Amino acid sequence: MTEAVREQISASLAAIAGTVETERRRILEELNHSVRRMTASASVSEWKLAVTDAARTFADFVVLWHAGTSGATHAIQAAIDSREMVVAACSSSEFPQEVLGQLGGAARAYVFPILENSAVLIAATAAGKIEIAPLEIIATLAGLTLGRVQAKSSTLSGIATAANGKPRVREQWETLPREEQQKHLIAQRFARVKVAEMQFYYDHAVKAGRKNRRLYENLRLQIDDARALFQDQFLQRPHRMADYLHLELVRTLANDDETLLGLEYPGPLA
Q1: Separation of alpha carbons 145 and 34, rounded Å
Q2: Over pLDDT 70: what percentage of the chain?
Q3: Is residue 91 in some structural domain?
Q4: At the N or C end, where does the chain have fewer CB atoms within 10 A?
């Protein structure tokens, strides 16, 4: 992965908690460090450890799972199919026994899809409370980096790493105003909806754009309109916001290959 891509992902993540408070700075440092580890990983094993270390900041029990080798139980398949977070009871009908054994007896777990190739991040906590927003961001960035790591290493399969232990700064995230957390969730959903609309209404242009590496040129009007709306609704606030639209364009529209957007694509919003 090029240095420019590393800086781009790091900058997007830095925007998540870009405020002056000490607690938020600590969260920012944690997330920035995690993203640097993901993008710098020389192997899938290193990438797995980087992702699970990042996630355990906000959950007591974390498992990376790839359903391709042994099938997906109900909760995992639901997250893969919907590409949305799924909450499920920790039971054998919802999760493989290997996963249940790593969840510390938690009553329920949260499943975050990472890629279309059936990778998911599963998180749980003994207290029953989970911080969804940062875990969702971690899963998004994990998906953005996995394909590139796989290209220079081995394939992802089976359980990766259970990173269990006391969260380091989850309590600090809880000090963030709920209103601010909600703004990030709304921005993420806005991005998903806009990209899903492009896929649904302009399927032929999407397929042709992927084939010819000209997605932006084929969907310039739709992408520019979405960028303008995102800029107006989410990037004009006192607190900085990550460019979730850019992340979703890369992750979903371009299948985690930013080059498919084409040379004319202007990149993430400032």
Answers
A1: 12
A2: 73
A3: yes
A4: C
Measured distance CA(5)–CA(268) in Å, rounded: 11
Residue 268, domain member (yes or no)? no
Cross-strand bridge partners of residue 64: 121
What is the spatial distance between Cα 212 and Cα 121, in angstroms, rounded to a whole number? 32
Q: Establish if 267 belongs to a structural domain.
A: no
What domain range includes position 39? 3-174
Q: CA nearest 10: which of 29, 23, 133, 122?
A: 29
Q: How many residues does the chain have?
A: 270
Same domain membership, residue 185 and residue 170: no
**CB contact at 8 A, 261 and 250:** yes
Dihedral angle computed from the Cα positions of residues 70, 71, 77 and 83, in that order, rounded to the nearest 10 degrees? 60
pTM, two decimal places: 0.52
Angle at 185 between CA 179 and CA 191, to 5 degrees: 140
Those residues whose C-beta lies under 8 Å from the C-beta of residue 117, and which sit 6 or more positions away, are 66, 68, 156
Clarify whether residues 74 and 160 are in a common domain.
Answer: yes
Q: Are residues 82 and 192 in the same domain?
A: no
